[in-house]
Amino acid sequence: MDHKREIISCARELIEERGLAKTSVAAISERMGVARTLFYHYFPSKEDLVAAVLDTYVDEFIAELKAWNASRMQGDIEGALDSIVALLRNLLFEGDAAHKPFRRALATHENAALYLQFVNRVADASANYIVETTVRDYERLHEVRINNIYETFYMLTLGLIGYLRQHPETSDEVLKDLIAQTLHFEREREQSHHTAD
Fold first, then answer.
1. Interatomic CA distance for residues 174 and 197, integer angstroms
2. What is the Cα–Cα distance from 169 to 55, expressed in whole angstroms?
3. Calpha distance 29→37 (Å, rounded)
4. Burial 8-37 (b: 16+ CB within 10 A, else e)
5. CA 179 to CA 174: how far, in whole Å?
6. In this predicted model, what pLDDT tens digit does every residue of 121-177 receive, in sequence order?
7. Burial (CB count <10 Å: 0-12, 13-18, 19+), residue 84
8. Directed axis angle between helix 77-93 and helix 172-183, to 10°?
9. DSSP codes joined into one string, 111-139
10. Tens digit of pLDDT for each residue in 9-68?
11. What DSSP assignment string belongs to 27-69?
């Protein structure tokens, strides 16, 4: 078995159980039943290990994003908006049991620094992925009307995650409007048949 992956897996479990501050090199070594020298053979510091743990969560987030991208219908902007908002809510609040402990761990004050690192890594990885895939698909059919594409998606990801964590009750329509306005999409809305009095 790969000792490096074992250390990352053990650290992830401990962070979810105890929080980042109480996840020490000693605790990891004790749980694994190995000497601390094994830890330092693979990770020069706890910070390097934390980065590796975060990468596992980011990889899972991007895997979900890839599944979303593969399932969307080309040219269906409304469908893409519906499904990306549902995905975002699922990743932040619901999801499978394996991800719930991490989301709870990130919600604590103690793990605020870990949360910020995670969100920044997710924003970077998501923006890079979307620019290389979804944007390329979109520009074959439509004009891309934003500048600084990577930066826009990075900021959009950060903003949506932060806003939705603070305002989970926000309607899907508002979230879809925020995305569409940021990216200069024209939304296909049902025409209202109401007349002014």
1. 26
2. 29
3. 9
4. bebbbebbbeeebeebebeebbeebebeee
5. 9
6. 999 999 999 999 988 888 887 888 899 999 999 999 999 988 988 898 999 999 999
7. buried
8. 120
9. GHHHHHHHHHHHHHHHHHHHHHTHHHHHH
10. 999 889 888 878 888 999 999 999 999 999 999 999 988 998 999 898 889 889 999 999
11. HHHHHHT--HHHHHHH-SSHHHHHHHHHHHHHHHHHHHHHHHH
The Cα 180–Cα 175 span in angstroms is 9
DSSP string, 69-101: HHHSPTT-HHHHHHHHHHHHHHHHH-S-TTTHH
Distance CA 43, CA 50 (A): 10
Position 16 scores a pLDDT of 81
| Residues 78-131: tens digit of each pLDDT | 999 999 999 988 887 765 555 555 656 666 666 677 788 888 999 999 999 999
Distance CA 116, CA 112 (A): 6
**Are 36 and 29 a contacting pair, CB within 8 Å?**
yes
Q: Which two tokens stand for residue 178?
A: 């925020």
- Output DSSP code: residue 23: -
